[in-house]
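Take a sample.
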Amino acid sequence: MERCAELAREVADGHTTMVGVGICEFVDEEGALSGADTLDWRGLDVAAAFQPMNVVIEADVRAAARAEALFGAGRPFEEFIYLSVGSGVSYCLVQAGWPRKGARGNAIVVGAPPVERTASGLALARAAGVARAEEALGSSLHSNVTVTAANRSRIRPRGPRERTRPRCGGHRRRAGTGR
């Protein structure tokens, strides 16, 4: 992180007082890191690293979606979906130029649990015991890693006896009433 801060200060050249930091993790409504699937920076004081500049911390996907709305292919649209495929797969809805955060700031999640935990480039590299996903994907020695990740991240079909809809509040239909 220190190297990122050094680069920001170098580019700012004393003329910029604000810097935006896009981080590849969940960022809550207050700008605090709330996830650790890619990088566990939850205990770091990101703002302190960039002093004397003021810092705004945002999820990288929402930061990129905002830039796309202001300067890129999203400019002509009132609403669009921004999709990012990188260390993981994330997306967000952009309305009136602003990425939606969702009720808990996690509106960028793909899958449940997030696909990043089993099928992102970083997860594949960790599972294969190599430094980069390209090493795992480019080697027949690690072909089992991608198959395992795909199996873990897919939605499994339900068996014949599994309920497809949970009962809401324990209410049961009354005989003859249709309710």
Q: What stands out?
A: Helices lie at 2-12, 46-49, 60-71, 116-119, 121-128, 133-137, 143-153. The radius of gyration is 21 Å. Residues 22 and 148 are 30 Å apart (CA to CA).
